[in-house]
């Protein structure tokens, strides 16, 4: 059997007495857009933080292209080719949009001219080139979300983790975000997306995993997951 592109095996994370992620196993195929959904507090961001190396894993394992990620530092995980955005955006507020993306591009180069070239390419790709000289703190939310994506792309990921990149956007901005995410996938980058806006998840994802209390409750095509009784119950409660 070939090695899965990305694999979580029995992933578990405890915060003191709270088990935030509980024996979670799933895999992601290369080229997929894989959705991770679940009610508030179900463990989605914690899964991203474990993949990115921000928290130590309590037990279980994570493997990316055959390499075990457990206990690797965040910068090594980034170098391996896993990039991410953050639910709470963290731009360098006083720097320009271009400088923000350049700092991320330094993940792959020490040369200023190269990081600038990469950052300009990424800004063009994300439709942000015309805002390159604005300070990050002056950007409207729609552009700030794009900047988050641009910074993650500048690290040259093979796997991109998108954490609620649509929250707070207008329907028009969401539609543009969907187009951008498809374009990213079409450029050869595999995506795991956490998102509460179901219209976005349903239209983008090839497969979806729904979790609650850190455990799998359903996995399958968008249609299968949306119609799954356990998913409906988790979101709407029992009648
Ligand atoms: N650093 C932490 N210390 C203690 N508990 C935490 C920590 N991070 C998350 N938790 C807890 O772990 C559980 C899962 O939280 P997490 O943020 O992963 O959920 P989520 O599915 O991303 O939620 P949301 O959709 O609201 O963003 C919650 O009960 C949360 O309070």
UniProtKB/TrEMBL annotation:
SUPFAM superfamilies: P-loop containing nucleoside triphosphate hydrolases (SSF52540). InterPro entries: AAA+_ATPase (IPR003593), ABC_AA/LPS_Transport (IPR051120), ABC_transporter-like_ATP-bd (IPR003439), BCA_ABC_TP_C (IPR032823), P-loop_NTPase (IPR027417). The keyword Repeat does not apply. The keyword Transport applies. GO terms for biological process: D-alanine transmembrane transport; L-alanine transport; L-isoleucine import across plasma membrane; L-valine import across plasma membrane. One of its GO terms (molecular function) is L-isoleucine transmembrane transporter activity. Residues 6-238 form the ABC transporter domain. Keywords: ATP-binding, Nucleotide-binding, Transport. It comes from the Bacteria. One of its GO terms (cellular component) is plasma membrane. This is ABC transporter ATP-binding protein.
């Amino acid at each position: 059997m070939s090695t899965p592109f990305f694999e979580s095996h029995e992933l578990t994370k405890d915060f003191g007495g709270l088990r935030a992620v509980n024996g979670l196993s799933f895999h992601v195929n290369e080229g997929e857009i894989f959705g991770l959904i679940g009610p508030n507090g179900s463990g989605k961001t914690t899964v991203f933080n474990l993949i990115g190396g921000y928290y130590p894993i309590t037990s279980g394992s994570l493997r990316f292209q055959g390499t075990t990620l457990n206990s690797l530092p965040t910068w090594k995980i980034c170098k391996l080719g896993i990039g991410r955005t953050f639910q709470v955006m963290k731009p360098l507020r006083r720097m320009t949009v271009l400088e923000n993306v350049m700092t991320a591009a330094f993940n792959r180069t020490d040369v200023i001219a190269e990081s600038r070239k990469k950052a300009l390419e990424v800004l063009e790709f994300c439709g942000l080139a015309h805002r390159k000289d604005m300070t990050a703190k002056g950007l409207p939310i729609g552009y700030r979300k794009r900047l988050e994506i641009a910074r993650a792309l500048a690290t040259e990921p093979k796997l991109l983790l998108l954490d609620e990149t649509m929250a707070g956007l207008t329907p028009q901005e969401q539609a543009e975000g969907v187009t951008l995410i498809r374009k990213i996938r079409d450029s050869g980058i595999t995506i795991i997306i956490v998102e509460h806006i179901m219209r976005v998840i349903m239209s983008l994802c090839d497969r979806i995993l729904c979790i609650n209390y850190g455990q799998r409750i359903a996995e399958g095509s968008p249609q299968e997951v949306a119609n799954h009784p356990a998913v409906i119950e988790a979101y709407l409660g029992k009648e």
